[in-house]
Structure formats: structure tokens, C-alpha cells
Amino acid sequence: FQLSQNTGRPLTGRILVVDDLPDAASSLAVVCELYGAEARVARDGREALSVGASFRPDVVLMDISMPHMDGYEAARHIRAAEWGKDLVLIALTGWGRRGDIDAALAAGFDGHLLKPVGAEAMIGRIASLRAKRG
Known about the structure:
Strand content: 15-25%
Low-confidence stretches: 1-7
Order of helices and strands: EHEHEHEHEH
Distance between the termini: 28 Å
Largest sheet: 5 strands, parallel
Strand order of the largest sheet: 2-1-3-4-5
Helix content: 40-55%
Number of strands: 5
Number of helices: 5
Shape: globular
């Protein structure tokens, strides 16, 4: 991730980062915190459901290809949970074909970002999707 010289801390609220690659998840959580959010990490879809239920995130950034429960299934479970109905759910994945994007949206994701993503692009996408949700 490349950070601008003046982050301005444009993020607020709680962000849950879900990725089975520990370094990627931790790095992304640090970036979110540098931009002003409170961040937590989960390593797969199952853990995302558990952490999300107690953490009550405003935004979930989630990989698709993970063990135990992939991002598509986790997204459906999150949307079915009371705590997950109104949050912003973004797929952050290496899968970027049109069919992958359509599958993510059908599973309940609000948006799709292709890895690797720059910090500014990620922050902008979070902001625009939060504005749409009100």
C-alpha cells in the first residue's frame, strides 16, 4: 500500500478485514487504522461471522478464496445476520473477471476491488459505498 503524505484520517467506524493470508490481513488492518478506522482481522469466513457478531463492523473487506468458508458463502451468512444487513461489504480479491464480480454482487457484496489495491482507491471505494447506503 502507498499512503499519501496527508491521510486526513478519512475513515471512521469499525472495519473487519477478512483474509486467509495473515500478512495481507494485518497490513490492510493497519492501513485502515492509519486512515482513522478501528480494525479487526478474521482469517476465514467462519471467523468473520464470529468476530463480526461481537465487533459489529460498519464495513467488511473480504477475500473470496479462503478455507473453511469462502467469501461468497460468508457474505450470504453476514447479510442474513441482524448485524450484517446494513453494513458495507466489499470483496477484495484476486478474482476479477466479469463473472467473479457478478457472483460477488449476487452473494451480497456491495462492491468489488481487485488485489492489489492502492490505499487511496480502497478508501475512496469505501466512502462511495457508505454514501450510497446512507
